[in-house]
Every structure is written in structure tokens, then in C-alpha cells.
Amino acid sequence: MRLHPLRLVRSSLLCFLILFCLVGLYHKFAGNHLSKSENQNANELLSLNKQYKLAERIDWENYTFSAIERSRRGPGENGMAVRLSSEEKEMSVRTQNKNGFSIYVSQKIKVDRSIKDIRHPKCIGTLYSSVLPQASVIIPVFNEHWETLLRTISSVRNRAPSSLLKEIILVDDGSSREYLKDKLDNFLASAYPDGKVRAIHLKKREGLIRAKLAGAKEATGDVLIFLDSHCEASTNWLPPLLDPIAENYRTVVCPFIDVIDADNFEYRAQDEGARGAFDWELYYKRLPRLPEDRNHPEKPFDSPVMAGGLFAISAKWFWELGGYDPGLVIWGGEQYELSFKIWMCGGRMIDAPCSRIGHIYRKYQTDFPKADLGNFVTRNHKRVAEVWMDEYKEYVYRRQPYYRNVDTGDLSAQHELRKRLQCKSFKWFITEIAFDLIKKYPLIEPVPLAVGEIRSVADPSLCLDALGATENVPVRLRPCIKDRRGSNGVQNFAYNYHEDIRIMNKLVQILSFDVLI
């Protein structure tokens, strides 16, 4: 039976209207997870991505400021180590208990001290797009030392083009030190009257992960940059982080992380770059740069996993990925969760050699958080493994069987997120992105190269003994058990395939340990 022409036209129009309404409803509800301001930022960033291709490239360096920095003299200037007398060294050691680094030395250095430019020479004068997004810098703070925190703020602000820095947000994570309350707010209002530096105060300690999320929700910039509160940003650190994001908003950029010595505050390079990775106990590791990357030391290069604390990500991409898993608590595992999401769900992560930021590596953990969830790092790691690592999680559980009995909490929202984003498999991540990881850290651990006691060369009657040793308690030299029947001790070690020493038949890895005689 043939349809009447008029009836056919009416049917076609009706189908078109239904389709139009469905498309409209999809766009309305698909963006419901973004706030009005976040949608505005996302639209602005997409517009910037289009402008990027047409924009001229310029040199963002402030050569006048750099020349002034090079001429400065004084304790710690140009990132030099602070030299102390014997008496001062004793005073310095006594001030390390509160923060894990020398407060005495930090107070001798100006809060706006100069830093030597240790970038690769080809970084100087590098051209970046003249159309770059504005950044919100988010700095979680918990009981940070006053001068050290101010030095972080000063370096971030002074060594970045002001037009690219939208704001610096300090997130006070329930600090117990009074100077991080009203005194901090009053100082910021006085020192930065333009309002670009401000603090928000959480009512109680939430932990690093949730403090970062709180800061991200407050941010109004196109790009979110997360830093620690004991850092110093180096020369022209910001444009190299923003330029790749302006080109593609799904690119996440990490700076090179330099070392600020915890004892003398010397600023020095850690190395000239590496690919972030992990072993199957989920310890963060570093793999050598690929040969093609080493040929261009100033160029950004792909990195499978971020170190965690310092990186730049577009606000649009961060929230599309769901931010951090809200079920992760305190700290630990968040760098893996975000790294896996970035790569597996359609993004890319790179390290930018021309952006360098120094970081104080504390000599020991201070003010360790108390959680009601037992070993929160283990719980976090298992949440990440269950959601993102597919069948590869078994290689984690084989090495640490107690993971199987850890309660992860509800994972349904995270599984739904992965399904909605149509993310690739973890096998794809290992095969295509972290293809050099398994060669260094095999799925099945090889037989140790050597097993047995470790005797002293100077006194063969003494052996290394790990009885009572922990992360903060050193391994000691004690009389060898084999020479004394019935004596107690832990003296059986394994020299492993990747050239570290572990306690035999123990899952706890003892690396770079101290020995007390």
C-alpha cells in the first residue's frame, strides 16, 4: 500500500521533531555533572583550543627579573646551600621534628629568594602560544611551616606571567597551628590586595585527596595546577604547562620535580627526567626516558604515571574524569587512579622539561593522620586495582595476599564512570603506554639472584639483622645466628632481580636502609 504524499511529509516532520527533542534532552542532561561556572570554563577552554592553532607564538620569559635574580646575594640565594657552623647545625637538627626539614635554615632564607636557572639551555627563549588559558594553583596546607609556605606562594607568583595566573588557592586542611587561620588570611589580604591569593579553611582534617578536591571546586581558572605547600617554582615555570593544554584540553602536564635539600635548602636537579611507573606492590617507580626522547631533552615526552603532587590539568577534563575518586581517603593511590583514567579514557599525560619546580622531600612523616579505616593506603590501592586494573590486579594480590580481605567500600559509581567514559582496558594501557614497565617489573617475580645472610667484611662475626626493623627503625648489625645456636633474629635476605635487597619470605621491601652498629 502506498502512503499519501501529504501523510508522508507529516510523518517525516514528526520524526524530525522527536529526534530534535531527544538531542536537546541529551545535551541538557549529559552536562548535568558540571556547574554553571564549570560549563562556562569548559566552553572558554574549547574556544581557546580553536584559537591556539591560529595564534602567534611568543617568548614569555621575563629576562629583566631573571637578571635581577642572578645578581642577588645572601643565605640560600640562587638556590645555594646554607652553610652552618657546628653550633648552628645542632640547632638546625633540633628544629626538624615539627616538619621533617630544617626550620632553622628556612628562617635564614628570604621568602622570595632567587633560584638558579637549571633548565636545559634550549628551554630559554622557547616560544609558546600567545593565547594560553588562565590557571588556578591549588595548594593543600596542613601545619606547614610559615616561611616555607610563603616561599612557595612567592615563587609561584613571581616567576609566572601575571596574566596567566588567575589565582592561588590555599586549602587549609584542618591545621592545628593558629598562624594558619586568621593570621594567614590577614597576611594574604595585605600582601596580595588584588585578591589573587586566598585561603579556604576546612572544618576538620579531610586528608590530601579531599583537600585537593575542595580546592578544585573553588577554582575559577581554565586549568587546575596542583602543588605541595613546600615547593619553589623555577624560572618561567607556567607557560610550558599551559601550552600543551591549550592545544588539546585532554593533555595533562607534569613539571620536572627538582630537590630542595631538607637540611640546607640547596636547590638541585633530581635528574633529567624519567617515565613514571610502578611495581606490582604499587610502589611508585621511574623508568629511563626512551631513546627518541633523550635526543630532544627540552621536548615534552609521554609518561605513564604521575608522581602525584605536582601537575596541571584542564578543569573541564578533570571533572569529565570525575575528579578524584571520592572514596579514596587521606592520601595514597590517587596518582595511579588519575593516571590510569587519563590514559585509558582518551587523554594523554606528558612531562615538560622546561617547567621545573623544586620540592622538599621530608626526612620523615610528621603529623601522620589517624583514620578509622585501618590501613587507608592499602584500601585506596585496592579501590584503584578493582576499578581500573582488570585481570592485572591479580599480580598485585599475589604479592600482597592480605589485599584480598580489605574492604574497599562501594565501587559502583566508579565502575559506572568507567563504563560511561568508554575507557580502554588495562591491558591496552600496559601494552601501548607502559610497554617498558614489565621488562623492569615482571608480572611473575623471578627467582632471587642470591639468598642468605649478609656478613660484615670488617667483622665477619656480625650480620645484618632486621629484627624489629621498620620504615623508621634501621636494620642493625648483630652476631650472626648461624654462629650461635638458639639465638633470635631476622638475617635471611634476598638479592632481587632488580638489584635491591629484601627480607627473605617477607613482602615488605627494605630499600636504601640505614645500618646501626
Explain what the structure shows.
This protein is 33% helix and 17% strand. The protein is an alpha/beta fold. It folds into two domains: 387 residues, Alpha-Beta Complex (Spore Coat Polysaccharide Biosynthesis Protein SpsA, Chain A); 72 residues, Trefoil (Trefoil (Acidic Fibroblast Growth Factor, subunit A)), CATH 2.80.10. The chain has a five-stranded mixed β-sheet, sandwiched between helices. The N and C termini lie far apart (100 Å). The relative contact order is 0.10.
Mean pLDDT: 86
Query: Could you name the CATH homologous superfamily of the largest domain?
Result: Spore Coat Polysaccharide Biosynthesis Protein SpsA, Chain A
CATH class of the largest domain: Alpha Beta
Counting structural domains, the number is 2
Characteristic key phrases:
2 domains, 17 helices, Trefoil (Acidic Fibroblast Growth Factor, subunit A), alpha/beta, disordered N terminus, 33% helix, single chain, 517 residues, Spore Coat Polysaccharide Biosynthesis Protein SpsA, Chain A, five-stranded mixed β-sheet
In short:
This protein is α/β, with parallel strands linked by helices. 33% of the residues lie in helices and 17% in strands.
SSE inventory with pairings:
Blueprint (H helix, E strand, L loop, with lengths): L4 H26 L5 H17 L4 E2 L4 H9 L14 H9 L8 H6 L19 E2 L5 E7 L4 H13 L6 E8 L9 H10 L5 E5 L6 H11 L4 E4 L4 E3 L5 H9 L3 E10 L6 E2 L6 E4 L5 E4 L3 H4 L6 E2 L8 E4 H6 L13 H11 L3 E13 L15 H13 L4 H7 L12 H9 L5 H8 L3 H4 L9 E3 L9 E4 L9 E5 L13 E3 L5 E3 L11 E2 L1
Parallel strand pairs: 3-4, 3-6, 4-5, 8-14, 17-20
Antiparallel strand pairs: 1-2, 6-13, 7-14, 8-9, 10-11, 12-14, 15-18, 16-17, 18-19
Helix pairs in contact: 12-13
